[in-house]
């Protein structure tokens, strides 16, 4: 993950598909998010760069849909169903994830270990998925 | 003993009355002409009456005394009539300093008083002479004259009071050259009064003028003009130099003590006077005993190499070569003197602190032995143990004994023993007891070296020499450097102008101070 203002963000991402679970009236995903454009980035325990105002996964309820799908705590969410999540406010992020009409959310998430894994498996040269 | 000296003499502030300046100027011009020829560089002496007696002795430290006998050659042929070199210099200085200055200090004041009185009495003379000489032929003058009389009287009164307040002060310093503004004002006053007398003589006395109202008006205008001259004097002598324009850095050459002072537009000599008045208050007393590195550290360097000259008779050409070789060799040697200096310093510091602790404890204990006797206790104290009532002197002597040893050791450690005799310590103790001071207040005088003024006796004046490359009546400018020299040290003064300040403005609306909390929300989805 590299954050240069004005430059396209380059990161190794993983596609995660979560099926929403119906609980009474609500459709839940089973994780919590933190961060956003209007939040204080210094408080984020998961980010490497403390000026990063992206959306991070802060908690995963064990056994929930997110856990089952492979989402991990500390992941940064880059896209939700094609919508960008790197430059959104906290509330906008929440809305995009909790649309009542959608049953499935397809996330692009990134984490540090992804880059390491790709580096190890491909040797020196490795493909980058550009946003 | 004092190593420092104050000086007394004229200060720029305490100008005498305007009239005295003129006379002083005349005298000074004569004197400075004769003196200038004898002094080659532009160093002029600020002379004071006084006593430089101890100056010759002041720089002798204890160690120098010890070595003196061994290293000097013996002067043979001394008789009982001969006097030593020191006595000679002392006598010369006495002759130099004592007689002329006493007169000089007060003569100026006396002459000034005369001219001032003359200027003051002139309007009264203008009024009185026609009345005395040709009273019968004068036109009668009614109410307008009386109005003028009253205003004249009050103006003269104000003139008198303000002259007394501003100008009639005992002089505190003698300046080397005459004080330009003062002389200017004196000349102005003299010219003024002289020209008024001239016109009076020609227009009034000769033709026996009969218009008395005109004469009174003439006298009133003289008094007005004198008041305006006094206003000018006030502005030039007292007010102009108040607004700060320069910053003077003063460094004492002997031990590096330095201060910064802000002054206004002054001439060099006036700035020197002002500076010295502050010097006595701000600078810690110069203690020559504190300066030297311990001999043990310095002497090791020089005794490393000896160079022998084998077989050559004239060694004049080799001497520089020898010294260079020695210096080079000494530089190559591994130099550990800084180590020794550091440890020596630490050791001295520790010793001082230990002795200070002992002193503080001893003094505290000593002070617990006495307390103030209250009169109403008389009946309460039992007749079996009558307490002896002492006055402060006896009380001081009584409690001095237990602390004397600790005090002496502490003063030795800080090398202050020459400044405080036993008598002075007991006097100070008596003073502190009288004023209900605590032991800490008593010790404040000994724990830190005080300002020089504390160690002086004011009965004598002090002599300083102003050394400058420019004439000392020149105004202060950026980058000037001048020195004020005493016998064993000097103060080097550098002049820098204060920076020009450009002040801007920014208005802050008090309602604009608003704050928000930093958000850190976590939402579960």
From TrEMBL, chain A:
<dbReference type="GO" id="GO:0016055">
    <property type="term" value="P:Wnt signaling pathway"/>
</dbReference>
<keyword id="KW-0539">Nucleus</keyword>
<dbReference type="GO" id="GO:0043113">
    <property type="term" value="P:receptor clustering"/>
</dbReference>
<dbReference type="GO" id="GO:0005737">
    <property type="term" value="C:cytoplasm"/>
</dbReference>
<dbReference type="InterPro" id="IPR050614">
    <property type="entry name" value="Synaptic_Scaffolding_LAP-MAGUK"/>
</dbReference>
<keyword id="KW-1003">Cell membrane</keyword>
<dbReference type="GO" id="GO:0030054">
    <property type="term" value="C:cell junction"/>
</dbReference>
<dbReference type="InterPro" id="IPR036034">
    <property type="entry name" value="PDZ_sf"/>
</dbReference>
<keyword id="KW-0597">Phosphoprotein</keyword>
<dbReference type="GO" id="GO:0009966">
    <property type="term" value="P:regulation of signal transduction"/>
</dbReference>
<dbReference type="InterPro" id="IPR001478">
    <property type="entry name" value="PDZ"/>
</dbReference>
<feature type="domain" description="PDZ">
    <location>
        <begin position="15"/>
        <end position="112"/>
    </location>
</feature>
<dbReference type="GO" id="GO:0098609">
    <property type="term" value="P:cell-cell adhesion"/>
</dbReference>
<dbReference type="Pfam" id="PF00595">
    <property type="entry name" value="PDZ"/>
</dbReference>
<keyword id="KW-0007">Acetylation</keyword>
<keyword id="KW-0963">Cytoplasm</keyword>
<dbReference type="GO" id="GO:0045197">
    <property type="term" value="P:establishment or maintenance of epithelial cell apical/basal polarity"/>
</dbReference>
<dbReference type="GO" id="GO:0005634">
    <property type="term" value="C:nucleus"/>
</dbReference>
<protein>
    <recommendedName>
        <fullName>Tax1-binding protein 3</fullName>
    </recommendedName>
</protein>
<keyword id="KW-0472">Membrane</keyword>
<dbReference type="GO" id="GO:0097120">
    <property type="term" value="P:receptor localization to synapse"/>
</dbReference>
<dbReference type="GO" id="GO:0016323">
    <property type="term" value="C:basolateral plasma membrane"/>
</dbReference>
TrEMBL record, chain B:
<dbReference type="Pfam" id="PF06638">
    <property type="entry name" value="Strabismus"/>
</dbReference>
<dbReference type="GO" id="GO:0005886">
    <property type="term" value="C:plasma membrane"/>
</dbReference>
<feature type="compositionally biased region" description="Low complexity">
    <location>
        <begin position="1"/>
        <end position="14"/>
    </location>
</feature>
<feature type="compositionally biased region" description="Basic residues">
    <location>
        <begin position="15"/>
        <end position="33"/>
    </location>
</feature>
<feature type="compositionally biased region" description="Basic and acidic residues">
    <location>
        <begin position="57"/>
        <end position="67"/>
    </location>
</feature>
<keyword id="KW-0812">Transmembrane</keyword>
<keyword id="KW-1003">Cell membrane</keyword>
<feature type="transmembrane region" description="Helical">
    <location>
        <begin position="148"/>
        <end position="167"/>
    </location>
</feature>
<feature type="region of interest" description="Disordered">
    <location>
        <begin position="1"/>
        <end position="71"/>
    </location>
</feature>
<feature type="transmembrane region" description="Helical">
    <location>
        <begin position="106"/>
        <end position="128"/>
    </location>
</feature>
<feature type="region of interest" description="Disordered">
    <location>
        <begin position="371"/>
        <end position="390"/>
    </location>
</feature>
<dbReference type="InterPro" id="IPR009539">
    <property type="entry name" value="VANGL"/>
</dbReference>
<protein>
    <recommendedName>
        <fullName>Vang-like protein</fullName>
    </recommendedName>
</protein>
<feature type="transmembrane region" description="Helical">
    <location>
        <begin position="215"/>
        <end position="237"/>
    </location>
</feature>
<feature type="compositionally biased region" description="Basic and acidic residues">
    <location>
        <begin position="34"/>
        <end position="43"/>
    </location>
</feature>
<keyword id="KW-1133">Transmembrane helix</keyword>
<keyword id="KW-0472">Membrane</keyword>
<feature type="transmembrane region" description="Helical">
    <location>
        <begin position="179"/>
        <end position="200"/>
    </location>
</feature>
<comment type="similarity">
    <text>Belongs to the Vang family.</text>
</comment>
């Amino acid at each position: 993950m590299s954050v240069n203002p004005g430059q396209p963000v380059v990161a190794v991402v993983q596609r995660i598909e979560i099926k929403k679970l119906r609980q009474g009236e609500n459709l839940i995903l089973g994780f919590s998010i933190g961060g956003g454009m209007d939040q204080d980035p210094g408080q984020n325990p998961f980010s490497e760069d403390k000026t990063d105002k992206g959306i991070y996964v802060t908690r995963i309820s064990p056994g929930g849909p997110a856990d089952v799908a492979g989402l991990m705590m500390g992941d940064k969410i880059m896209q939700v169903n094609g919508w960008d999540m790197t430059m959104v406010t906290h509330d906008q992020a929440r809305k995009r994830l909790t649309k009542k009409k959608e049953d499935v959310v397809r996330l692009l998430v990134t984490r540090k270990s992804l880059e390491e894994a790709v580096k190890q498996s491909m040797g020196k040269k490795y493909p980058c998925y550009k946003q | 003993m004092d190593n420092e000296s104050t000086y007394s003499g004229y200060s720029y502030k305490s100008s005498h009355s305007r009239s005295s300046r003129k006379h002083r100027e005349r005298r000074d011009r004569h004197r400075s002409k004769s003196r200038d020829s004898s002094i080659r560089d532009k160093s002029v002496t600020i002379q004071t009456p006084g006593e430089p007696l101890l100056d010759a002795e002041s720089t002798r430290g204890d160690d120098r005394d010890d070595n003196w006998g061994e290293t000097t050659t013996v002067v043979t042929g001394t008789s009982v009539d001969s006097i030593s070199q020191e006595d000679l210099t002392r006598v010369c200085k006495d002759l130099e300093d004592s007689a002329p200055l006493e007169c000089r200090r007060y003569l100026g004041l006396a002459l000034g008083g005369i001219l001032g009185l003359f200027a003051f009495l002139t309007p009264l003379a203008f009024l009185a002479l026609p009345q005395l000489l040709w009273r019968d032929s004068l036109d009668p003058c009614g109410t307008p004259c009386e109005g003028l009389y009253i205003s004249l009287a009050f103006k003269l009164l104000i003139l008198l009071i303000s002259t007394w307040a501003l100008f009639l002060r005992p002089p505190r310093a003698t300046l080397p050259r005459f004080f330009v503004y003062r002389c200017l004002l004196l000349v102005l006053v003299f010219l003024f009064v002289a020209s008024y007398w001239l016109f009076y003589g020609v227009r009034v006395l000769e033709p026996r003028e009969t218009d008395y109202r005109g004469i009174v008006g003439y006298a009133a205008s003289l008094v007005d003009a004198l008041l305006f001259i006094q206003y000018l004097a006030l502005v030039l002598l007292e007010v102009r130099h108040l607004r700060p324009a320069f910053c003077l850095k003063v460094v004492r050459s002997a031990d590096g003590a330095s201060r910064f002072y802000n002054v206004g537009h002054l001439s060099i000599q006036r700035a020197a006077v002002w500076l010295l008045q502050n010097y006595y208050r701000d600078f810690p007393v110069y203690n020559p005993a504190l300066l030297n590195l311990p001999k043990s550290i310095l002497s090791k360097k020089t005794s490393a190499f000896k160079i022998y000259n084998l077989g050559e008779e004239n060694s004049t050409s080799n001497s520089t070569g020898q010294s260079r070789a020695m210096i080079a060799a000494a530089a190559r040697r591994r130099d550990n003197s800084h180590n020794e200096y550091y440890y020596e310093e630490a050791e001295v510091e520790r010793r001082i602190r230990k002795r200070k602790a002992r002193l503080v404890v001893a003094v505290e204990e000593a002070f617990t032995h006495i307390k103030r006797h209250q009169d109403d206790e008389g009946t309460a104290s039992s007749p079996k143990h009558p307490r002896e009532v002492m006055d402060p002197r006896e009380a001081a002597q009584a409690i001095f004994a237990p602390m004397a040893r600790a005090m002496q050791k502490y003063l030795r450690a800080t090398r202050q023993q020459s400044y405080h005799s036993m008598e002075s310590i007991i006097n100070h103790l008596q003073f502190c007891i009288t004023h209900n001071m605590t032991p800490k207040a008593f010790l404040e005088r000994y724990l830190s070296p005080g300002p020089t003024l504390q160690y002086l006796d004011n009965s004598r004046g002090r002599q300083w020499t102003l050394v400058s490359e420019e004439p000392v009546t020149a105004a202060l400018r950026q980058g000037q450097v001048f020195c004020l020299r005493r016998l064993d040290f000097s103060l080097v003064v550098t002049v820098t102008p204060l920076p020009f300040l450009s002040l801007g403005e920014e208005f802050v609306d008090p309602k604009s101070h608003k704050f928000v909390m930093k958000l850190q929300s976590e939402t579960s989805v």
